[in-house]
Amino acid sequence: MTIETLVAQYGLPAIFLGAGLEGETVAILAGVIAHSGTLGFWPTLVTVALGSFVADQIFFLCGRFFRQARFVRRVSQRPLFAKALAAFEKRPVLFTFGFRFIYGFRTVSPIAIGTTQLSTARFLLINALAAATWALVFVSAGYWFGNGIEAAFGQLRLHHRLLACLAGAVLFVAALAVWTRRRWMPKRL
């Protein structure tokens, strides 16, 4: 069975789960897959947005209703949890919209927001708008990156292109992680 067949058969459910659990790398890779023509751009975009939206709603609800659960207590002890709460207190709507764009805050932030007084309905609305915007940015980047791969590597088979794109996406996310960590983590003496 070829990669093309696997993606055609299981592509959207796998992308849904990946967008919810991992994030940027999957969203960019999904854009590359859409570029290849294996999946349509709009179904891929909607699937990535839904995966991100559902995962963040679940994390928010964990923070709201399961504060004493081991998972939530463990997450709340991370230094980023306190930073997320502090950023939320300064600009609640802006932070709620933008946390998914800050590498490292993706899982911690909706849990932290769930422990605040922000209403579930308001989080749902902001989360939906943010997930759609986030998916559009990252899937489109992958789609455009797919054009670059096609031009640079010509007629390589799909799995070679996907491996090259995955390597590029991993490098991009790693660079973003280093930059974000330096920006948000306290400096050690």
UniProtKB/TrEMBL annotation:
It comes from the Bacteria. GO terms for cellular component: plasma membrane. Keywords: Membrane, Transmembrane, Transmembrane helix. Residues 23-143 form the VTT domain. Signal peptide: none annotated. PANTHER family: ALKALINE PHOSPHATASE LIKE PROTEIN, INNER MEMBRANE PROTEIN YOHD. This is Membrane protein. The lineage of its organism: Bacteria, Pseudomonadati, Pseudomonadota, Alphaproteobacteria, Hyphomicrobiales.
